[in-house]
Amino acid sequence: MTKLIIDYIYDHEEAHADKVFLTQPIGDNTVLDYTWGQMMDESRRMAAHIVSLGFAPGARVALLAKNSAHFVMTELAIWMAGGTTVAIFPTETAENIRFVLDHSEASLLFIGKLDGWAQQADGVPANLPCIELPLAPQTGFPTWSDIIARTAPLAGRPERQGSDLAMLMYTSGSTGQPKGVMHSFERITRMTEFRNADALKRLGEGSVMRMLSYLPLAHAYERFGVETAFLQDGRGHIYFADTLATFVADLRRASPNIFYSVPRLWLKFQQGVFAGMPPTQLDALLDNPATATAVGKKVLAGLGLDSVVIAASASAPIPPSLMAWYRRLGLNLIEGYGMTEDCAYSHSTDDLHKEPGCVGLPAPGVQVRIADDGEILIKSPGQMVGYYKRPDLDRESFTDDGFFHTGDRGERLADGQLRITGRVKELFKTAKGEYVAPAPIENRLNSHPMVESSIVTGVGQPAAYAVIVLDENLRPKVSDPMVRANVESQLSQLLLEINAALVGHERLQMLVVAREPWSIENGFLTPTMKIKRSRIETALAPLVDDWYRRPGPVLWA
Fold this sequence. Notes:
- The protein is α/β, with parallel strands linked by helices.
- Helices cover about 35% and strands about 20% of the residues.
- It has 17 helices and 26 strands.
- The strands form 7 sheets. A 5-stranded mixed beta sheet has the order 11-12-13-14-15. Strands 2-1-10-9 form a 4-stranded mixed beta sheet, sandwiched between helices.
- The protein is globular.
- The model has no long low-confidence stretch (mean pLDDT about 95).
């Protein structure tokens, strides 16, 4: 019988019973360590409880929680009890929580560590059984601790079939209503084996993986890059972050040799460095061969990244200039490309294939081709089984020979590297009837130090325009007329430089400075900090006509 991830887990339980696997901060600079034996004992007890509830095989069991050791334990309990995990983003609104619970037909909900439970509670149906995890807000539901204290552990090695659904993952909704992506044990396992073989090759023979888990485990990037990777390998150590205020301390505690993040956070780390040392001063030190290495190491140590061997950015394009900055520090930052539908396993750069603006070569086992219309088509070992309750989408999403329509446009270089040039459906027409691809223009805008993020749009307008969010350190200062004038001057110059590199119909008529930053809280970003383009465009719609009537290359919304 083909070995599945759950079989690896049972093997590690026996081989590494006394080895610490999870480290969980619990406040006041205190942590709890869980060995493989302790983790599996708690998971087995909860699995026995779930079995006692009499759910049908494959029952969907939901999990609403931030990252924690008990997120992992809950998933293991669900798997051993014969269920399918439905993890919900911990920042979701009550409306989206209700949608996922109803659409997945969840039989049970685990509620864990959360920041906004008071606003989310109304999304939970009154008749849905719930269990409160350690570190959760007080919910009044039965607690994990009480249940496992009175429940004997489930014995043996409960089997799952390769075709059984392990996870139902709801997309973060950047393009509309979330879709349930089905992943089986077989495909998760094969993808994870490929991923770990590649990661351990990059780390070096005999290396043991260490990571800090802080990006949402409900998202494919963290779920497969951290959780399933470490469960399959068994020798590594996962550390969890406590709060934003303790992040640096948590990172230093972990001293990770692998570190994953998203472009917006890589940018924030850079901004934190610049807050302590002006960019011009740091550049001078990095340009000097006598000081460059020592300064780079010191900066990375301050960030807690001095032990990192594999550093990766994914989820959205990262400006090439930002990637180059980290490489000057001595951090070999690579870029990855993947999506929920392929277990975030598709492409990544490496030491030899890191052309700026490219996402590298196909990962081992991945096939790629470019369709006639420029769309990227992928066949991955981590390919989803399909969309839950949406056979219509399944038919639209796959070619006859099994390649997935990614919705991204791209091109391949002569050496096989993949360059992503935008989204197929993000192309828009101006009033002149010509198409504009926003992504390449946005990447140029986002490379400017004053710009935190941007969107390029202008459907049906005389010309395209861009809305930008200023860097968070700059935003409080623009009330000063001199600072504001300087910002307008530099942005006017940026507009000239960008337009000079574009063909006529792509050129931007203006840059508009957003009134407020886009965030998860105000609904303009997904939980993994991708912009919700349609949501932003809808919010801007009442203002656009007035902008076109106002003079000036730089406007303030």
